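Reviewer 2 asked us to include a model.

Predict the structure of this chain.
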Amino acid sequence: MRFHYDLTGAVEVVRKMKGIGTFYAGAGVCCGATDQTNIGTVIPATGLYVNFVGMCNQTKTTTGTLANADVEDIDVIINPYAVYLVEYDVAATGITVGSYTSKSPVFANNSGDGHDNLGGGYMYRDGDPGAGELNMIDSCSESGGNTTIVLEDTETTTITTSSTFHLIYPVGPYMIDLGDSGRKIDSNDLDCGGGDTGTDGLPVTILANYIQYDGIEMMRLEDSLHAEKTGLDDLNVHFFADVCFFPGSWLVE
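Predicted model (structure tokens):
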């Protein structure tokens, strides 16, 4: 994750804040939530879905505690209307297909929440058969513990129950989960979007998506250029999103 721009045109606002935990430059931080342990400080945002503060601007492991009154400072970018460029974690293992009919993979939800309304987003296949293929999503719905995705066009390589996928969110308001110590979007989390705000996912707004691979500089992800593209797994592909965290900000909660 990195600061990309501010919706108001402001420059980065960096402040020293009391922090408890292991922090990484480029990772999100949230308000602490446990009284007498970390309330009044910031903590790493992994697995947290409320009170997003901003992005850590340094790598540091703090050792102080509230009880000892020696909590250390960390540098945090705190612009409330910041837009961060956040990578989708497609290096992690993708979601496994439960069943399949033409242009329509079905995934079993882990928590029963599932993820609907992903039309206009993309599915990136990270596991064979067909690893490296990118498909645009036409529609997505959840029912009976399953999430069913309908693709815009027939895939180049037939999907099987061995295929694994990552989700690239459409532009708009969604709930996400941050992984990789708060630095990347968990693109293999099928359940964060269908649960409760603040419990299963962090509310954000996706403003744009980008793709980058060998020989191609980062560019906006476009249906006409990239849907049904294959062989991306051999080209060191990366996907990114412009994310505004204000909907889940500590200034809103």
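The helical segments are 223-226. The chain has two domains: 2-85, 87-243. We have added this to the supplementary material.
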